[in-house]
Amino acid sequence: MKMQTKAHYKSEIPEKKKEAHRRTNLRRGSLIPAVPRFGGNNGHDNHDATGIKAYAAQSAAASLGPFAIRRREVGSLDVQIEILYCGVCHSDLHMVRNEWEQTVYPCVPGHEIVGRVTKVGRGVKKFKEGDLAGVGCIVDSCRTCSSCQSGLEQYCEHDPVQTYNSKDTHLGGVNYGGYSKSIVVDEAFVLRVSDKLNLAAVAPLLCAGITTYSPLRHWKLGEGKKVGIVGLGGLGHMAVKFARSFGAHVVLFTTSPEKGADAIRLGAHEVVMSKDQVQMNQHLNSFDFILDAVSAEHDINAYLNLLKVDGTLTLVGLPQKPLGIAAFNLIGHRRQFAGSMIGGIAETQEMLDYCADHGIVSDVELISMDHVNEAYEQMLKGQVKYRFVIDMESL
Ligand code: NAP
Ligand code: ZN
Ligand code: ZN
Questions:
Q1: What's the 186 CA to ligand 3 centre distance in angstroms?
Q2: Least C-beta-crowded within 10 Å: which of 59, 165, 263, 377?
Q3: 3-state secondary structure the chain
Q4: Is the shortest distance between the CB of 237 and ligand 1 below 6 Å?
């Protein structure tokens, strides 16, 4: 996921940058031999013994397949992690298929990483060999801007280094994510993981978990608040769990009638079929807050109309195309339309600790690495309950 607010949609990506990406992609495309192959992060083939097994997409139209990558040597503040599980986020799919028009190939996705520490640098204080550890969507930031100083590294004014498809600040070129056997990350961006929870089910907390926990905390949702969650996918099901756990009255909006019973089991008080106008009308002007976690085009106005005076609709979903908003739907009730992106490192740790204390994890389906392409197709059809997680032992 490269969800940089400055360069998200096609119209906002500087032409020069797009051309540079296109050229790089063409250059790399012409080098692609049959898989498996080895690739250094600088885009040149690297046949040395440091090849680490991974899965990559070589172009927007290609399936993911075996690939080998290089990771940097462990620096004094670095933690090397053997990846045990990696969640499959819809952002991985958007990125692999270049739906945000910023993907650099080969692309190794994955930012819901849980594993075991295999080596630490001399200056590392938080971790030792053998510890459990997690890595989410960001692996570095400038650390000095006002956002970084306030624990909001995800909004770093110089752009955070995302876990994949970002500039590799150590090896050059583009960096690679968690669909791989191991990763090396500065300890400041590595999270502590409790051994109390099922590790595979913890992995999705690193993105789906924090992306929903953060806005629910920021807008102070809890007892006495009516909260809507739109879309019961990876993010949506975590949002339902958190909103319920925080004490809010939770209403789940879905396009999938068969998910109704699950939504109640996961913690929703009510379920609304969003295509049923009668059901939707029963909730007009009544919500304090709605979190929209839909991955595709949909009518956002239908949800704005459900907010009461001063209510907020916050977008976390990242559809490929811009959403149209009717101005009257905002001004009528002084409604607010907002967005939110993952969470900072301290808040991610807070969320993981909260989950350990309250026994909250993701509902997952464990898959082998070679099932990932099929998993993408199933995710597109909404056929996942509710997050695929790759067992890295299968790689
Ligand atoms: P997901 O598991 O595929 O869930 C998306 C859900 O959206 C589906 O389960 C479905 O729910 C609903 N949906 C799909 N197509 C729809 C359509 N055409 N109309 C209406 N509803 C539709 O995806 P995810 O991993 O949760 O990610 C959701 C979105 O959040 C993605 O765009 C992803 O890139 C983005 N994301 C953002 C952040 C952030 O920091 N803001 C972080 C991670 C992911 P129902 O079947 O219940 O209708
Ligand atoms: Zn994600
Ligand atoms: Zn910064």
A1: 15
A2: 377
A3: CCCCHHHCCHHHCCHHHHHHHHHHHHHHHHHCCCCCCECCCCCCCCCCCCCEEEEEECCCCCCEEEEEECCCCCCCCEEEEEEEEEECCHHHHHHHCCCCCCCCCCECCCCCEEEEEEEECCCCCCCCCCCEEEECCEEECCCCCHHHHCCCHHHCCCCCEECCCCECCCCCCECCCCCECEEEEEHHHCEECCCCCCHHHHHHHHCHHHHHHHHHHHCCCCCCCEEEEECCCHHHHHHHHHHHHCCCEEEEEECCHHHHHHHHHHCCCEEEECCCHHHHHCCCCCEEEEEECCCCCCCCHHHHCCEEEEEEEEECCCCCCCCCCCHHHHHCCCCEEEECCCCCHHHHHHHHHHHHHHCCCCCEEEECHHHHHHHHHHHHCCCCCCEEEEEHHHC
A4: no
